[in-house]
Amino acid sequence: MNKQDIILCLSVFIIALLVLVFIRLPKKGNVAIVYYDNKEILKINLKIDNTYTVKGYNGDVTLEVSNGKIKVSDEISPKHLCSRQGYISNSYESIICLPNKIVVKIDDSEIDAVVMLWN
Amino acid sequence: MELRKFTRLSMLLALSVVLNIVENMIPLFNGTVPGVKLGIANIVILFVLDQYGFRDAFFLSLTRVLLVSILYSGLFSVSFFLSLGGAVLSIVAMGIFIKITKLSTIGISVIGSLFHSLGQIIMVCFMIGEANAFFYLPIIILFAIPTGILTGVLTSELIKYFN
Fold first, then answer.
1. Which domain holds residue A56?
2. What is the span of the domain harbouring residue B25?
3. What is the ipTM of this complex?
4. Of A47, A104, B74, B81, which is the most buried if we count CB atoms within 10 A?
5. Interface of A with B (CB under 8 A)
6. Residues of chain B contacting residue A12, judged by C-beta atoms under 8 Å apart
7. Which residues of B fall within a CB distance of 8 Å from A4?
8. One-letter-per-residue 3-state SS of A18-33
9. Residue A59, in any domain of the structure
10. The pTM is what?
């Protein structure tokens, strides 16, 4: 390991860390938007604890809301990456489930009611 | 192509395919950080890049992705496109950086690891039409540095042994 390697590793590490801190300044969102195949299919109010079921590419995807946080609790996919990811609650955070073509994003804009826009 | 080189490259290809499949079976952090893996298949690619040059390493990397997807994850599946994006960007970046900088094998390995993550994220963005996946890049890069160093150390030991 020579000097250039150390400079490279350290600088990339520091840049990544800084970007991470700046992007992820915690900012609670109160709406989760669910997309299927890039189309918005469901808006979820995170202030109400509930479970929701949406149709994914492989079958039903179950979403669970509790304490202003949302997670994918059940889905059919080879590795279950999105359900292992657990709860998300900050804006900019998202759960991406490629096998089911489902994306859950947090938004901090207000909504009055839970709007359902089924395909 | 010289027969000796041809045989060696084929054996190295087989080795990289096996390493790739094996590392897919090793879950890191219990799968809580998706997309993070050891990258031990890159040992072979780096070794070939060092011993035979960019052209052979490039084709070896492409063939590896193709073979692994046929044998393991399925051709033209999601993970095929992810590893294709990662592999192409990673080998091109390593080829460029090995020419223009004085980085040692470890540094080149870190470069490969970083650009592999970048390539995968770009592929994810293309496939879901969602630029939001880029917010995941800093996290994955923090993991890419140590795994890149590990691969680089192993490869430089290997090259030392062969020379």
1. 28-107
2. 3-162
3. 0.80
4. A104
5. 1-2, 4-5, 8-9, 12-13, 16-17, 19-20, 23-24, 35, 38, 79-81, 84-86, 92-94, 96, 98-99, 101, 103, 105
6. 110, 114, 141, 145
7. 101-104, 107
8. HHHHHHCCCCECCEEE
9. yes
10. 0.70
